[in-house]
Amino acid sequence: MLPSFLMLFSNVDIISKKGFIAKISYIILGLISGLTNENTVIVAVLIYLILIIKNRKRPYYFYLSLMTLLTSYSFLLFGPSTKIRRQTYLDIWGIKSVDIYYYFNNLKRAIILFFQERCLYISLVIFFLMIIFIFTKNTINSLKIDIVMLLMSLIIILPLVFVPYTESRAFLLFDFFSLSLLIKSLEILFNQYFLVKKPFFILLSLVFSVCYIIITDTYLDFYVYVQHRNEQIYQHKLNHISDNTAYNWQEYPKKEYRYSRLLSDREDYCIDNVGFLEKYYGCNIEVNDYELDNGKDIEVVQAQNLIFTDIKDIHCNIETIANGQNKIVIWGWCYSQRNPNQNFDIGLLDKTANKIFKLNTYAYQRQDVNKAFNLPDNYRYVGIKAKLDISYFDEVKGSKIVLIYDKNKQNYHVYETGVDFSDKFED
Hints:
Blueprint: H1 2-9, H2 20-33, H3 41-54, H4 60-78, H5 80-93, H6 100-117, H7 119-135, H8 144-152, H9 157-160, H10 172-193, H11 198-239, E1 247-249, H12 267-272, H13 274-281, E2 285-287, E3 298-302, E4 306-309, E5 314-324, E6 327-336, E7 345-350, E8 355-359, E9 361-364, H14 367-372, E10 383-389, H15 393-396, E11 400-405, E12 412-420, H16 421-424, E13 425-426
Parallel strand pairs: 1-2, 4-12, 5-13
Antiparallel strand pairs: 3-8, 5-6, 6-10, 7-8, 7-11, 9-10, 11-12
């Protein structure tokens, strides 16, 4: 993006002064850049298009780099992995059809999330622009390039309209240009009111150094823990070749990062995909799944104690039912618009026997669901997860998945999800 950026704002073509190898490298980099990120690449494409509008007589390597960028970007957008990921999230949110309202809701969700998560940046940018415009001899023209790039970075919202998920990292380009504008604004203020601006840059360097140390320490701590756990697993594997005893998987003790994507390896993903862990390490692995190992696996509730209801404000989706470690694990998400503190248990309805197998259910945080539906902060524990012993399989294989809530001393309220156990079960 840098050569195109210089062409656009400084009318300088740094590639033309280089040799043939540099030009070929520039073309190849277009191919690599197009595969990086669906949100940021679109800004680079926009810069190319503006340059073409300004002057169509560009050198051959400019157009070839644009072609390689568009080729790889198209593969990123329409490749099999992107389609699979999109369909996976459609299944997670329970979206059955895609229409104009789907795209409108995606746009609304992306805009709301942008202003929620970038409120500080937006406020600081507006504040410093007002200060510079009112109190300094410089006009906004001195920040023209920074403002234009900041506004161009807003186009990153466009790709989010076509996908069912919104990720904070989509706004990183906006963060970059916001910081650039803020630093330039502070530099202008120091030039105007202070003879010496060295202390400002020293202070700025110290702030960034502290942030760098905190980030490095977080990743280093996680890396050391994972390396130590890997050594334990391989040693356990060597010590139990004959009896094939399962390794007791220990999760990362810092719970604030359990569902975070800040770390490279999400602990919740590992726990929910024990089969992949066992294939990777080549040994049996047993996970103490949060609080699910406490209490009874299953409780049978007879029909006379069931009250079936059809409340429209309940939103839910049963994502997966899988066999792991001789346990049937069911997980998904659920929330009630009327009552954010409503607790739900997962149940298996056997209509022929007029009874429900009520499962020990654990509620956990699902930030992805909160962002997808723009839920308030008090809807924190919308994830639901339950398990039962594989020995119950024959009894429950023909059942329907239901949600049980509002339990009193004798009766249960039941909400039918419309999901069949057999349709979702993955062996």
